């Protein structure tokens, strides 16, 4: 059963960013050990793009409900059928027939192929023809647990998203997995004060507390006071904020957490443009006062 609360948060943020920029690829290969998580993430994006509610995707508006129940005219799911262990060519041919149809409600249609590693060779070749010549505004999601079982020619025509593994058990592994170097990790010593300050700042943001702007300046000052590795500590703060948002996702607060993760993606771009640490914290504080 589809569950928009059980998604890959980072991967959903990546897809949301592409959607917001009008840069969705025509085909994605979502590789995950937990295929259900990848499938939920694909449907999260489809609901986000079509949601009629204020906080997208709310999962409760008529469009979202029809998408999740399999009754939306612009969304089609292909999966292994009962008593069959593979996806046959006749199922893929159905997609080719659907390509002749224009979107009924939105600006594009969505094809989702679950367990794509179970495509028979004829079915995979038929799918390849569709991916080579997308003649309609369609986004295709291939969900698979093993990329090695997908034809290389199909992989080369998709944008591949590898889902993260389970969260690391140690702080060091967590930081390394989130882009810090070993030298930077070694600079993060006693983090108790920063950990607490980040927690309070995040809670104030979620409560739209005007005092978050004060906490932003206090947090920036606390990071600046660290004896070494200011840049490493700044990275550490962004990782902690991301982890707090991911906890919110796990708790079921999907819309608010997804919006916050999207803001962190925006801040990543601002950091690459050399926007300062305090200015980025201020950006969050001011935006979440609204």
UniProtKB/TrEMBL annotation:
Organism superkingdom: Bacteria
A matching Pfam family: DNA_pol3_delta2
Alphabetized Gene3D superfamilies for the sequence: P-loop containing nucleotide triphosphate hydrolases (3.40.50.300)
Protein name stated in the entry: DNA polymerase III subunit delta
């Amino acid at each position: 059963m589809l569950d928009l609360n059980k998604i890959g948060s980072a991967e959903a943020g990546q897809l949301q960013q592409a959607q917001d920029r009008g840069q969705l690829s025509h085909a994605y290969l979502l590789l995950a050990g937990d295929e259900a998580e990848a499938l939920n993430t694909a449907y999260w994006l489809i609901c986000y793009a079509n949601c009629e509610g204020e906080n997208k995707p709310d999962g409760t508006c008529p469009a979202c409900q029809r998408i999740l129940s399999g009754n939306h005219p612009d969304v089609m799911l292909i999966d292994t059928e009962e008593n069959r262990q593979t996806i046959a060519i006749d199922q893929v041919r159905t997609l080719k027939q659907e390509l002749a149809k224009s979107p009924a409600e939105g600006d594009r249609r969505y094809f989702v192929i679950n367990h794509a590693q179970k495509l028979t060779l004829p079915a995979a070749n038929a799918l390849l023809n569709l991916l080579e010549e997308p003649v309609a505004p369609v986004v295709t999601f291939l969900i698979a647990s093993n990329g090695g079982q997908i034809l290389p020619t199909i992989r080369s025509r998709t944008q591949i998203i590898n889902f993260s593994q389970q969260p690391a058990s140690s702080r060091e592994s967590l930081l390394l997995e989130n882009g810090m170097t070993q030298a930077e990790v070694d600079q993060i010593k006693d983090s108790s004060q920063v950990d607490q300050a980040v927690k309070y700042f995040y809670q104030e943001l979620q409560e739209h507390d005007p005092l978050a702007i004060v906490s932003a300046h206090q947090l920036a000052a606390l990071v600046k006071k660290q004896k070494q590795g200011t840049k490493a500590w700044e990275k550490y703060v962004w990782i902690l904020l991301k982890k707090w948002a991911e906890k919110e996702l796990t708790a079921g607060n999907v819309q608010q957490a997804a919006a916050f993760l999207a803001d962190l993606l925006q801040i990543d771009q601002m950091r690459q443009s050399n926007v300062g640490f305090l200015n980025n914290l201020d950006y969050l504080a001011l935006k979440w006062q609204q």
